[in-house]
Amino acid sequence: MDETTFMYVEIVLAVLAVAAFAFAVTVLTLIRRLNGLHSELAALKSRYDASEMKEPGKIAALPEGKGKEPVKRAELAPLGERKPAVVPAPSAAVAADGVEPEVVAAVMAAVTACGYMPTAIRPVRQRKRQNKRWLLAGRLAGMR
């Protein structure tokens, strides 16, 4: 073999040795961090267990307000007497072909009731083919 080939092999081996050393250092660093995290976890568990031993049955609760009246809840009407809530919907310009304005109003009211802004709704239209020649070429080639 030629001397330049041996020189390239030596360079490649040197680069591989440096990469292996860097990998080993990284692995050892990560192992040390993992061991440190395990020791922190053990310390936290022991502190948690010690705090539970001191106060075994204590459950965290919201403090009660002193001198305040309880919140009154609204009574519901019987099922047959309930009326649906009417939500006024803002009027919007409609440019739909073949759709009745009442249908559009009902859809817009439902969308507004769900919490969407009516201006965020965009019409969906069929996209036109960009290049009819490619479509024809695909059909001639037997593609779908």
TrEMBL record:
Protein name per the record: Sodium pump decarboxylase, gamma subunit
Superkingdom per UniProt: Bacteria
Alphabetic keyword roster: Membrane, Transmembrane, Transmembrane helix
Membrane-spanning parts: 6-31
